[in-house]
Amino acid sequence: MSRSFVPSPSTPAVLTANRLRDGLSVWMTPCGWDTDSRAALLFEDTEGADAALAAAEAQPGVVVGPYLTQSGRDADGLPVPVHFREAFRQSGPSVETSAPHSRAQNFRHPQEAAHV
Asked: 25-39: per-residue pLDDT in tens?
């Protein structure tokens, strides 16, 4: 896997994905996948990070799109996002998740309707 950083003590990585059941962002913790990013494992070496990623990719019925991303540490040593995308993912869904999804299910792109 290509990435723009190498996991190390100064640039640790976290493993994140989306839970297949509901699409929520999850992070690998010592106890498995969790929606609490502050509990995420920090990987400080390439071997450990790559092994965790391979294990996550072998769970297709649990998570989708697992990837490693660079993380920082707060004053307590807990993971904090380095990039805007990861900070945004931590804030939770950007749409109301309890609403029915019928609108999205019935949406047809205008070009699709023209050729179907």
From this structure: 999 999 999 999 999
